[in-house]
Amino acid sequence: MVSAPPTQPVPRRVADPRLRRVLKDDAHKLTAVGGLAALSLDALSSVAYGPEAIVLALIAGGVGAVAFTLPVAIAISVLLIVLVFSYRQVIAVHPEGGGSYAVAKKDLGRGASLLAAASLVVDYVLTVAVSLAAGAASLASAFPALAPHLLSITLIGLAILTVLNLIGISESAKVLMLPTFVFIVCILAVIVFGLSHPTPVAVIGKDLGPIEPVSALGIILVLKAFAAGCSSLTGVEAIANGVPAFKTPAIKRAQHTEVALGILLGVMLIGLSILIKAHHVVPRGDVTILAQLSAAAFGTGIPFYITNVTVALILGFAANTSFGGLPVLMSLLAKDDRMPHLFALRAEKPVYRYGVAALAAFAAVILIASGADTHRLLPLFAIGVFIGFTISQAGLVKHWFCARTPGWHWKAALNGFGAALSAIAMVVFFSSKFTEGAWLLVIVIPLLILLFGRTENYYQGVKRELELDELPTLTPNPPDQTPLVIVPIDDINKRTVQLLEAALHLGGEVVPVTISRTDQKAHAMTKRWDQWNPGLELVVLPTAHRSLVTPLVEYVKKRQSDGRQVTVLITEIKTKRRWHQILHNQTGIVLTANLIDRTDAIVANYPYRMN
Question: Which pLDDT score, from 0 to 100, does residue 359 have?
Answer without folding.
Answer: 93
